[in-house]
Amino acid sequence: NAGVMQNPRHLVRRRGQEARLRCSPMKGHSHVYWYRQLPEEGLKFMVYLQKENIIDESGMPKERFSAEFPKEGPSILRIQQVVRGDSAAYFCASSPIRGANGNTIYFGEGSWLTVV
Amino acid sequence: KQEVTQIPAALSVPEGENLVLNCSFTDSAIYNLQWFRQDPGKGLTSLLLIQSSQREQTSGRLNASLDKSSGRSTLYIAASQPGDSATYLCAGEGSQGNLIFGKGTKLSVKP
Predict the structure, then answer these.
(1) Which of A2, A43, A44, A65 could be B101's S-S partner, Cβ–Cβ 3.0 to 4.6 Å?
(2) B45/A45 Cβ within 8 A
(3) Is the pLDDT of residue A1 over 60?
(4) What is the number of other CB atoms lying within 10 angstroms of the CB of residue A62?
(5) Tens-digit pLDDT profile for residues A15-39
(6) Is residue A40 within 8 Å of B87, Cβ to Cβ?
(7) What share of chain A is helix, strand, coil (3-state, %, to 5)?
(8) For position A102, what pLDDT does the model report?
(9) Which pLDDT tens digit goes with each residue over B53-62?
(10) Nearest CA in chain B to A5
(11) Percent of all residues in chain A with a pLDDT value above 90, rounded to a whole number
């Protein structure tokens, strides 16, 4: 059973370009979370999705950021018109049911975005 | 608003020492509390999950406790080894299942 798969692992974008980060949850997991880890900062929750639904996006910046989890395929975190402050590690996590609720939540290896 | 604080921010110990990492949270209405390990440039590995109705969990040389009334959790590592060197993260679960993380304690165990 493969773990949570994220790609790309490393991504370099120029200011103003778009960044697309992909996450395939563990098999059987229908709940996906995205977190961002800025340099020297803790991980911050961004968005919680189930298949075809955004459940909680309270941690998403209001502009330029969007997320989806289609019926088929991976979850996508999309950042439009990137700025240097978007440089961070973006982690995806998945779980089989809502929240941890006693079930361990599994994290991917992260996608490191560098904006130059 | 839930906030999670971890003390100390960094810790360096000689191999073989027992050590305690501390985590405090402001809202006692957390659902669960998890401890993770993060190696440089890597993702997070779950170490221990304490459900809200539990007081502690143990796995090998690790023991984590949870005291919701005082808003504290501790991670105890026995007989530390150089391979334990990593950043340890504490996270409380919010109402939607999202995790609220502390900034972590960076542990270095010297041979």
Answers:
(1) A43
(2) no
(3) no
(4) 6
(5) 999 999 999 999 988 899 999 999 8
(6) no
(7) 5, 50, 50
(8) 60
(9) 889 999 999 9
(10) B43
(11) 75
pLDDT band at B76 (very low <50, low <70, confident <90, very high): very high
Residue of B6, B34, B44 to mutate, interface with A, max A Cβ within 10 Å = B44
Q: Chain A contact for B101, CB < 8 A?
A: yes
Average pLDDT over residues B41-50: 90
CB distance B34–A100 less than 8 Å? yes
Report CA-CA distances (Å) from B90 to A105, A115, B20: 13, 29, 13
Inter-chain touch A35–B99, beta carbons under 8 Å: yes
Q: What is the pLDDT of residue A103?
A: 64
> Which amino acid would we find at residue B49?
L
| A24: number of Cβ within 10 Å | 19
Which residue on chain A is closest to B102 by alpha carbon?
A42
Whether B23 has its CB under 8 Å from any CB of chain A: the answer is no
Query: In the structure encoding, which two tokens stand for residue A7, read together?
Result: 């790609």
- CA A2 and chain centroid, separation: 18
